Predict the 3D structure of the following.
Amino acid sequence: MLLLAFMVAGLSYFLRYLAVPYVVNTLVLIALLSFLSALVCRIHLRYCFISVVLGGMIYGVMESAMLPIVMKVLQIPFEELIVGPWFNLVTFIPILIIAMLMLGCIIKKGLVLYDFGSEINEA
């Protein structure tokens, strides 16, 4: 998994500097992460794609809910996020902590967002 994280981080670093709209940037990263996950973890591409999209949606909702609160508490203006990339890391730390707490609760409770086992058993 660490190898996968480094691969995607490296690719996203170089992809960021390409002159493409952010939507294309995001779609390419979703496709790359899905493909690399399937390749490295030897999981069916469809399952990787579903997992990547669901994870991205959950993170996006959580970030859009938490970012204004974090920025208000830390008194960071929105313009600083654009100018200073280090502020992105500062505002990410509280969101990461909440995400880790949510993940711990999900694992502890055994919650399942999508059961791939039912599709495997039908095939």
